[in-house]
Amino acid sequence: MFKQVTIRKGQIGLVSKNGDYQQILEAGRHRLNGWFGQLQVDVVDLNGSPVLAPLDDYLRQYHPDWVKQYCLVADLPEDAIGLRYDHNLLQEILPPASRCLYWRKDEHQRVEQVKTDDIDVPEALLSALLQPTLRQRQIIGHTGVLLAQIPAWHLGILKVDGAAQQLLPPGVSGYWRFNHSVEVEIVDTRLQALEVSGQEILTRDKVNLRLNLVANWRFSDVLTAFGQLAKPADYLYRELQFALREAVGTRSLDELLENKKIVDELVSAQMREKMAGYGIEVASLGVKDIVLPGDMKTILSQVVEAEKSAQANVIRRREETSATRSLLNTAKVMESNPVALRLKELETLERVAERIDKISVFGGLDQVLNGLVNLKGA
């Protein structure tokens, strides 16, 4: 009993009998001799697709000559990565210790091996990884590569197996993830603002204040900062809290109100000392707001009002005393000097004449102060 089978170009037929592969049919028309149902033909496209299990193990074990002729073999050691190319275009990244077969469509397929000792992805390969992304065509196994894109004014911290290795400048770099744990942390190197708000602190005289502080800071040594601190910004925030509480809690309200810059100066000095060994620079800081309790505001208003009233009274008394002393000195001068007395009389007469229209004097000028003066106003 005969069976007719047609195999097109770019295909092969795997002939099996009772589940056991007997031969391979290439492109053309074939006439098989065998009982119906005993022979089976599996048509395979030679398009570079992988040979699926368990067929791959079967062919390796029982038909190595077929594997050599029709398959691309990708057997990798534990310390190597496989790069499968098709017409010089990267198609797949294979992890170490892979054992794969692919149906070979022509002679333009190949597998290259890259050792995992060096985690840096070569620059030429990096462009091949980026271009498919731009064309919206991902490379199979691309998750085995970490692509680090560092923006301008930033640095990247490369960590391999949990240890910081180096700083990465702005740009794109790639690293193999196989056999290693690789990650990149991006750090902003520009001046940043950190706000410590809503801090309620008791002064030395038990007055509850609420303060808001702002600090401008930057990294002076990124590797030092992240080598000693898990979260540098959080550490800076806590130290600002501690310094602010120490500066306010050890001083009275009057001291703080008399010199509002004292808090800024004390916190700045303490932060410079604290952050010197951690690769962090505090460029400037300042207390934005000092909020008093409602009842304390009323008391302070009354105190200020009383102080200003007392100051005004002192000034008034001082001026009165000065005026009295001046009059006394003038009287002493006029008592001993008739010419000065006459000048004072003329000055008085001049001031009086400024406000009236007509003056009648009886007894001469000598009687201006002692005699009768008849003044008729308008």
TrEMBL record:
The lineage of its organism: Bacteria, Pseudomonadati, Pseudomonadota, Gammaproteobacteria, Enterobacterales. SMART domains: PHB. Belongs to the band 7/mec-2 family. This is Slipin family protein. It comes from Affinibrenneria salicis. Residues 145-304 form the Band domain. SUPFAM superfamilies: Band 7/SPFH domain. CDD domains: SPFH_eoslipins_u2. It is found in: Membrane. It holds the Pfam family Band_7.
